[in-house]
Amino acid sequence: MAALVARNVNHETCRHRYPRAHLAFVATDQVRPAAKRLLRAVDQGNAYVLIPAIVLVELTLLREAGRRVVGPAEIEALFTRYRGFDILPIDLAQTQAFVGLGGLRDPFDRMIIAAARSGPYPLLSADNLIAASKLVDVERD
Fold first, then answer.
1. How many domains does the chain fold into?
2. pLDDT tens, residue by residue, 7-22
3. What range defines the domain where residue 81 resides?
4. What is the pTM of this model?
5. pLDDT tens-digit map of 35-44
6. Separation CA 120–CA 88 (nearest Å)
């Protein structure tokens, strides 16, 4: 799963900007060390994590196709556990960025990169294709 990272930000400012925001974070084996560092930074108030809404759609579709990915119940449990995580709704800036990424075949990768570029936010992701594209700053180990 992908997460956008905002560092050294005020949590209340982010909550005001995303008033209906929720809290979620999922780590895969490939990003586990980076995810642990990020969780520490969030706990210390030094980072804020935004999960692009499209990621939740992609996870749902993958789960329906029989893939073993995090589901809604696991994500909801994380919402109550951590402060400093929100859902980044799809907005006009992301759709405009999406238009400029026509060379990418996967529409979900395209939307995730568009979300990261709309910030701009560095991206925490285990997706090798996103990292290889060099279209966005990807944090990984």
1. 1
2. 544 445 454 453 322 2
3. 3-127
4. 0.76
5. 777 777 777 7
6. 13
